[in-house]
Amino acid sequence: MTAEQARKGRPASQTEQWEHALNLLYFNFQDYSKEALRKFDDEDIHQARVNCRKLLTLLAILDPKHSSGLYPIFKKAQKRLGKVRDADVLIQSFKERRQQAKADGKPKTVKLLTAVIKHQKHTRKKYREQLAQDLPKLTNSALDERWAVFLSTQLESMVARRDANVVMRELEVAFEQRKQACKGLFKDLSSPSEEAFETLHKLRIAAKELRYTAGAAAFTLDPKFQADEGIYKDVQAQLGEINDKRIWLQTLNEIGRKKLDVGKKTWEAFTGELRAEVLEALQHNRVLPVGDSK
């Protein structure tokens, strides 16, 4: 019987489970990254980013001080992928709104949205160029070598020292603390402050960390955390809807009416509609009571 056959005949050790999970994400990240650079398909970009994000999640559990040197590499890759992905999502969102404006018989709004889409495509082009320049340098053979060294010389000791369940509990506490910080900041929905929106954004990020940790580290977490991925995915989605609409409005204001060559009346009507949607999303979220809610 070979060593491999003997290993297959017994339960995998904690280190082996971690290595399997990490390798699956690593090779997915590498494969999707290559495909993403080949034609910038939005799904390839998305999957490369997701697998990279899960790698960062597991590395943050094992190596919070980033002693392996891998975390900054993946973080830079995620940032480059994220810029393109966010632009893809934003463009698609404005395309859908343009389609609705056409259906509603609003030609001036269609013109506004067409101008925004054109502007964002130009921005995305720059992000794609940055990705094409940087990602091959980050995902080359040197990374493969560093990855192999990490697995063979550092992983086992890190697994012995770190417990994902402890990290998960710490993230839950941090989420509740951020949730408490949000309370009271949205009492006046007529004009929510920038501080309130920034605090809400941090709460969304905390939910995202919990979601990804619950999912990526599911193989080593206690059963009590099994439902957390779905719970915090829903939380992230609700807070994300608020943030997305706010980003749409912020994007428009950063570009400016004059640059888009849009009339004042059309501009005010559309931006006013977006502001109303932000407030509506706030009022209907089930994560954090707002306004007069207790």
Shape: globular
What number of structural domains do the residues give? 2
H/E element sequence: HHHHHHHHHHHH
Distance between the termini: 66 Å
Class of secondary structure makeup: mainly alpha
Rg computed from alpha carbons, rounded to a whole number of angstroms: 22 Å
Task: Report the sheet with the most strands, covering strand number, pairing sense and barrel closure.
Answer: none
The percent range for helix content is over 70%
Describe the structure.
It comes from Paenibacillus agri. This is CHAD domain-containing protein. Residues 1-294 form the CHAD domain. It holds the Pfam family CHAD. Helix 10 runs antiparallel to helix 12 (264-284). This protein has helices at 3-8, 14-39, 42-62, 71-103, 107-138, 141-153, 155-161, 164-182, 194-216, 228-255, 257-260, 264-284. The protein has 294 residues and is mainly alpha-helical. The chain is globular and about 70 Å long. The protein contains twelve helices and no strands. The protein starts with a helix and ends in a 10-residue tail after the last helix. The protein has two domains: 14-161, no CATH class; 163-293. 79% of the residues lie in helices and 0% in strands. 28% of the residues are buried.
